[in-house]
Design brief:
alpha/beta, Isoleucyl-tRNA Synthetase, Domain 1, four-stranded parallel β-sheet, four-stranded antiparallel β-sheet, 17 helices, 46% helix, 15% strand, globular, binds zinc ion
């Protein structure tokens, strides 16, 4: 080794020790990540309310935090990742009035509330598995932590930050704001919040419209209910996350995440509940993911501009040209930073699909590369840039750009336009696979099933086409239904029929 090269190695900082910076919503700044307990990270992410199918926007949040979880572990941290299941039901309008969503759905579908919970929890897990998300370390449920929620309510009452009214318990926001800062996370001022809310009508149980329920007395039609010192009722909207994060991660923990729509009031209320019950600010780094749009417009059920993950995978929708594999969708999501708005469109997904295939092909080609005595580029710097991009607030689009520099290099080596040494080859192989599979959570798409089925499906589609031509719709429908039972979707388009698994 030459002196100069040796000196370079000595002065080059090990990428593992490079500092990780996280954008903290609380300070509106990128901050150096210093866990409260060295090498141990506590992370809490607000999970789904399981009364309907998980939508793509939620998937983006969970995929973003899955990547964050993966990268922290890759850096060597021991991470306890807690993500709850909201199965006690949020109320329709901001926690205080009306029927909870799970009860309502149960009434509409004539089911037990826990049947709804089971159905959509299983569906949620199925979708996240398709996206190759790792399960969290603990996935606690709100209904499994009613006692803890009652205990926190008692504590907040004892400290004088809540009051009982007609069997319900409310958090006293203005009292809390005398010593603490309600609105610190979302940047809201309490005076503005007060002037922006409707005045109470005198019938209200609350002292101020800003006060939120810690415990609600159940009305006669409310199905999910538990006994408490105040009434037979149910916990308020925000309390479960405080109860479960405190129980599993302690009074103070490192990272709390969720979609940006949860910043206010949900997370603001979590801070208030935590401070009021323990005297400590619960979270060091607050992280929020941005929203999804579809063809440039806000996703919305009412306008039909909405897409379920399953519809995206099967191609069974009117908004996209064709089906997209969950790994392509995950890769597409990683091509935007988690704090940026991401727009779903066929055009963008098609481009991602090409990019994804290019990356996977290059990785598959690695073992065939010829090793030389020297490398024609600085492989160490390239690999360092993988870390640097992720250390900059988990900047996955920059990481992917760097991975594509590696792809270009690999392709040049294949074509004899570049060279790589044995050591650099080992380094590059190790890191490109680690960052692609372990950190970004991508995987090869298993084509075997499809390639075996391709000739068979061609025959089946021809027979069905013939049946339709003969106006034998019974046979045509029979083929479609039976094939569907086997997990294959036939889609009829103007150009003919297509199939997907
Ligand atoms: Zn929450």
């Amino acid at each position: 080794m030459t002196g100069e090269r040796f000196f370079l190695l000595l002065t080059k900082k090990s990428p593992m020790t490079n500092t990780l910076y996280i954008y903290n919503t609380l300070s509106a700044n990128k901050e150096e990540f210093k866990p409260l307990n060295k090498d141990l990270v506590g992370m809490y992410v607000c999970g789904p309310t399981v009364y309907s199918d998980v939508h793509l926007g939620n998937c983006r949040t969970f995929i973003s935090f899955d990547t964050i979880y993966r990268y922290l572990m890759y850096l060597g941290y021991k991470v306890r990742y807690v993500r709850n299941i909201t199965d006690a039901g949020h109320l329709e309008n901001d926690a205080d009035e009306g029927e909870d969503k799970i009860s309502k759905k149960a009434r509409l579908e004539q089911l037990e509330p826990m049947e709804i919970v089971q159905k959509y929890t299983l569906g949620f897990h199925k979708v996240l598995r398709a996206f190759n998300n790792l399960p969290p370390s603990i996935e606690p449920t709100a209904t499994g932590h009613i006692i803890e929620q009652i205990e926190i309510t008692k504590k907040i009452l004892d400290k004088g930050f809540a009051y009982e009214s007609n069997g319900s318990v409310y958090f006293d926001v203005e009292k809390y704001n005398q010593t603490e800062n309600y609105g610190e996370l979302s940047g809201r001022k309490i005076e503005d919040l007060i002037s922006g809310t409707r005045a109470l009508d005198g019938q209200s149980e609350k002292k101020s419209p800003l006060d939120f329920a810690l415990w609600k007395k159940a009305s006669p039609y409310h199905i999910m209910r538990w006994p408490s010192p105040w009434s037979v009722g149910f916990p308020g909207w925000h309390l479960e996350c405080t109860a479960m994060s405190t129980k599993y991660l302690g009074k103070q923990f490192d990272i709390h995440g969720g979609g940006m729509d949860l910043k206010f009031p949900h997370h603001e209320c979590e801070i208030a509940q935590g401070c009021a019950s323990t005297g400590k600010k619960p979270v060091k780094y607050w992280m929020h993911t941005n929203m999804l749009t579809l063809n440039g417009k806000k996703m919305s059920k009412s306008t039909g501009n909405t897409l379920l993950p399953e519809e995206l995978f099967s191609g069974n929708n009117k908004l996209m040209d064709k089906p997209y594999h969950p790994m392509v969708v995950r890769f597409f999501m990683m091509q935007a930073h988690y704090r940026s708005v991401l727009d779903f469109s066929s055009e963008a997904l098609n481009a991602s699909e090409k990019g994804f295939n290019k990356l996977m092909t290059a990785i598959k080609d690695l073992p065939q590369l010829t090793k030389s005595t020297q490398s024609s580029i600085d492989v160490q710097s390239l690999v360092d840039s993988f870390y640097q991009s992720m250390n900059d607030d988990f900047n996955t689009p920059i990481l992917i750009a760097k991975l594509f520099e590696a792809v270009k290099y690999i392709n040049h080596i294949k074509d004899g336009k570049a060279t790589i040494s044995k050591n650099d080859f080992d380094l590059l192989s190790d890191k490109i696979t680690a960052f692609t599979f372990d950190v970004l959570g991508l995987n090869f798409i298993d084509k075997t099933d499809e390639s075996i089925l391709e000739p068979l499906m061609k025959i089946i589609l021809t027979l069905r086409k013939q049946a339709k031509k003969n106006k034998d719709y019974t046979t045509a429908d029979y083929i479609r239904d039976k094939v569907s039972e086997a997990g294959i979707t036939i889609k009829d388009t103007r150009e003919g029929s297509t199939w997907s698994l």
